[in-house]
Amino acid sequence: MMEIKHLLSMDAEIVFGIINERLRIECDSLDELAHRYNLDEKALTDKLKSVGYHYDPIRNQFKAD
Questions:
Q1: What pLDDT digit, counting tens, does each position of 2-16 carry?
Q2: How far is Cα 33 from Cα 23, in angstroms, rounded to an integer?
């Protein structure tokens, strides 16, 4: 899980793929993912928002705006 540890320093498009995979396989919500991996939820959503993605809680994934 090395990629999760350094997630916010990675390219946003790579982060998008990793996060959506973890949401699909391991976590039922963004909040659960943030707690499980000790991530700053706002920093994560801001990073993905900066490249045009937003979190859809119904689908439990980040999607293009």
A1: 467 688 889 999 999
A2: 7
